Amino acid sequence: ELCQIGLIGLGVMGKNLGLNLADNGYSVAAFDLDAEKVQGILSQDEQERGDKPARITGCSTFEDLLSNLQKPYLIVLSIPAGKPVDIVCGKLLELGLSQDDIVVDTGNSLWTDTVEREKQYHGKFIFFSCAVSGGEVGARFGPSLMPSGDQAGWSRLEPVLEAISAKVDPESGLPLVNNEPGNPVTEGEPCAAYIGPTGAGHYVKMVHNGIEYADMQLICEAYQSLRTALGLTPKQIAAIFREWNKGPLNSYLIEISAEVLEQDDPVTGKPLVDVVLDVAGQKGTGLWTALSSLEIGSPAMAVTASVYARCLSSLKENRVKASTILKGPEVTYVADSEKEAYIARVHDALYCSKICAYAQGFELMKTAGEQQGWDLDFAAIAKIWRAGCIIRAVFLQSITDAFNKDKGLANLLMDEFFAGQVEKFQSNWREAIVDGVRLGVPMPCFTSSLSYFDSYRSETTAANLLQGQRDFFGSHTFERTDEPRGQFYHLNWSSPERDLVRIK
Ligand code: 6PG
Predict the structure, then answer these.
(1) Fewer CB within 10 A of the terminal residue: the chain, N end or C end?
(2) Ligand 1 centre distance from Cα of residue 205 (Å)
(3) Is 210 in a helix, a strand, or coil?
(4) Probe ligand 1: pick from 16, 215, 285, max atoms within 8 Å of CB?
(5) How far apart are CA 363 and CA 378, in angstroms?
(6) pLDDT at 371 over 90
(7) Could you tell me the distance, in angstroms and rounded to a whole number, from the CA of residue 302 to the centre of ligand 1?
(8) Which atom of ligand 1 approaches the CA of 284 most closely?
(9) Are strands 5-8 and 28-31 parallel, antiparallel or unpaired?
(10) CA distance 443 to 353
(11) Complete DSSP assignment for 215-238
(12) ipTM score here?
């Protein structure tokens, strides 16, 4: 019997997506260039299904894959972003695809590549994209999915994607989880929503990852502040994170940070975090978010700061050398009687900075969406991030609520709830930063978030002086506060009269 879905690429993500599809009743033809990976998914399926019939057909070539598939084809790619996507699409075209066939790219592709590919394959087959978040476990038991592209593609994919996605309890807004093979969660609201025309889904996923970078970096700064100022052990900080996880900071990233901090190294018995080299990797999506924010002029300083923090971490050799030359302040631990208040201040700094990071990410998507004509639904985007994805958190429900109240909300900080939260906690946020600065703790993301907040809430900034400087050395002109926008002036700085010239 022919299979309903073809799957190309059986790395951890592909394999788990395949098993997830099978759990949800879809027959899958699976192919990878590496025959061992094909064997891998087949044996995993065999192990999990027990005496039930096989749900996955292993294929040894592209031709074999197509000959095992129902027409029109529905082919899911789970392969590295970039060239491999073009190569595989080219190969499939060569073997014969038709207008109704759909190829779905689930990788972390650059959104502009997706737009190009859709154009390139238009009329030949439907090139559709479905960005996936949630790592291996998400892929296996329910990821958050950000599909976009051709409407005909979406109509056919909608039931499939909704079935395999993570689910949320509509009452509580909390994830409905069952990490048990063969028993997928079928109730609740699916974390899959049509994002918009081609490119939109990958853009939104890119910003998801940018926010993920910021969220992770902020947690790292909280950890480092607590460790430096209080001299706590990783396990003690894990316990604090576990407490925080009961409140508004409740999130997958706080939870796994506590787990990482609790872990001992199996070799030395020391806290694992102390033997992990402090050089951060990155695969590019944070950088793309930062670049896009710079390009379109929508500040996402928390993302840029976290990308730079990873870059700085990579300068290990230089840092080791610099640490012997550049001295900072002497660190004395905070007094015992002050500890609790200090921890509360760091909590609030993390919370307020996190609000800024998300506000930046959502404003970035809004600006990009307007430029591209995407008409993004931010309440729906926040909703599908409530479960399955890496940034899943209780917090996302409040973001959904904010956009449900005001679809066109310019910035999350302007929502009544978030404005109230920042007002309530900002003095602690400021003090945590002052304390950290005094102790010499690097906090690029905490500090940039506070600067963003202080800039965003300012009616006037020092850009008036800046315009004066530009006009002085380059006759770049300026507008006046007492005239309508669009009327430019230049002051003759070099003439004795210093007369004002109105630029026509
Ligand atoms: C997700 C993750 C996933 C991946 C990141 C990691 O949403 O499931 O974001 O896409 O883990 O790309 O990125 P870095 O390697 O750049 O940290």
Answers:
(1) C
(2) 10
(3) helix
(4) 285
(5) 10
(6) yes
(7) 17
(8) 16
(9) parallel
(10) 11
(11) HHHHHHHHHHHHHHHH---HHHHH
(12) 0.97
Q: Which two tokens stand for residue 209?
A: 């990852």
| Residue 1 Cα to ligand 1 middle (Å) | 36
Q: What is the pLDDT of residues 190-203, one digit of tens each?
A: 999 999 999 999 99
Ligand 1 atom nearest to CA at 135: 8
What integer is the mean pLDDT of 313-342? 96
Closest CA to 22 of 3, 2, 1: 3
At 504 the pLDDT is 85
pLDDT score for 66: 98
**Considering 15, 37, 167, 205, which one is annotated as catalytic?**
205
Residue ranges for the binding site for substrate? 108, 133-135, 208-209, 213, 283, 310, 470, 476
Ligand 1: which residues within 6 Å by Cβ? 108, 133-135, 209, 212, 281-283, 285-286, 389-390
CA separation for the pair 356, 399 (Å, rounded): 12
348 touches 248 (CB < 8 A): no
Residue 36 annotated among the catalytic residues of the structure: no
Smallest CA separation from ligand 1 atom 11, residue: 135
Across 140-163, average pLDDT: 97
The closest-lying atom of ligand 1 relative to the alpha carbon of residue 108 is: 10
pLDDT digits (tens, 9 = 90+) for 403-437: 999 999 999 999 999 999 999 999 999 999 999 99
| Domains of the chain, start order | 5-197 (3.40.50.720), 202-456 (1.10.1040.10), 463-503 (1.20.5)
Q: Are 432 and 446 in contact (CB under 8 A)?
A: yes
* DSSP H helices in 315-407: 316-325, 339-372, 378-384, 395-405
Ligand 1 pocket mutation pick from 385, 390, 396 by most atoms within 8 angstroms of CB = 390
pLDDT for 9 beyond 90: yes
Residue with tokens 């894990």: 238
Whole-prediction pTM value?
Answer: 0.96
Ligand 1 midpoint to CA 176 (Å): 23
